[in-house]
Specification:
alpha/beta; Rossmann fold; disordered C terminus; methyltransferase; Class I SAM-dependent methyltransferase; transferase
Length: 281
């Protein structure tokens, strides 16, 4: 069940991009957690915690009477996650463990299992869910947030300069076995893992004309940071495309000056409660 290496790496630039990403999508993640029934006093396991942003969202919902454990295999990310938890004054509610999903165990059962952008990297997400739900209480809740960034025409009116960069996003994921359109597969994955039919909500973040500036910052920075994964995966890139530090600013300028609407990756939030077992079982 060990998952593939995180394609975008763990550089300072990537951590900055993850911060922009969180600002853009955290309202949807929080809405999904609330819809799933995450409430004060619960215990939460956050898988693939990264910088801990989902863990902090969960900590805010469970309050001081609950607790959150975030697992992440990159020690550098865990160190930064601890700093963010301290800055948010949530260090008493959140703890992080450097661990791989395949090896992780815990002495107590959790009320909630949550993950954001993690199943897409797993070679066998169904088996992963089956194993991880064993860490839940009998009436535990599974909450997963994934996306789909395979839309090849995200701009209206069309902005070819943007579309060319965005169209490159799926390439390195497909080349390494990750799934760029995992969002629509969430319901089937839950069912195949033996879970109930999940409730699934969707949301498409919008940037540019009448859109959210945070979404534009996230998407434009990703267009730059995708350069290294493209190169590492051997994905062909047109010669005229440049991935220099000024790329995000150029793309933002084009979108705003031409009053373009940009659709970001469609977000999928799925949640289901385990089938409670009778007391004698």
């Amino acid at each position: 069940m060990a998952h593939s290496a995180y394609l975008l790496g763990h550089s300072d630039n990537e951590h900055q991009r993850l911060t922009l990403q969180n600002e853009a999508i955290s309202p949807f993640t929080e809405r999904t957690l609330r819809s799933a029934g995450v409430r004060p006093g619960m215990s939460v396991l956050d898988i693939g915690a990264g910088l801990g942003y989902v863990s902090l969202l969960a900590a805010g919902l469970v309050g001081p009477g609950g607790h959150v454990v975030g697992i992440e295999r990159d020690p550098g990310s865990v160190r930064k996650a601890w700093i963010l938890a301290q800055e948010a004054r949530l260090a008493d509610t959140v703890r992080y463990e450097v661990a791989d999903l395949a090896d992780f165990t815990w002495p107590e059962k959790f009320d909630v299992l949550v993950g954001r952008y993690i199943l897409m990297y797993l070679p066998d997400p169904v088996a992963a869910l089956r194993r991880l739900t064993a860490l839940l209480k009998p009436d535990g809740i599974v909450v997963m947030h994934e996306m789909d960034f395979t839309n090849t025409s995200p701009t209206r009116p069309p902005l070819p300069e943007w579309d060319e960069y965005y169209a490159l996003w799926p390439g390195p994921f497909l080349a390494t076995g990750a799934v760029p359109d995992f969002g629509p597969r969430l319901a089937r994955t839950f069912l195949d893992a033996g879970l109930r039919q999940p409730e699934v909500d969707t949301w498409t973040p919008v940037a540019g004309r009448s859109g959210d500036p945070a979404v534009l910052d996230w998407l434009s920075s990703t267009c730059r940071e995708i350069a290294t994964p493209l190169r590492n995966a051997g994905v062909p890139v047109p010669d005229h495309l440049r991935f220099d530090d000024a790329l995000p600013q150029r793309l933002r300028g084009l979108v705003l000056s031409r009053e373009v609407r940009v659709d970001g990756p469609t977000q999928f939030g799925a949640h289901a409660r385990l089938m409670s077992r009778a007391p004698h079982e």
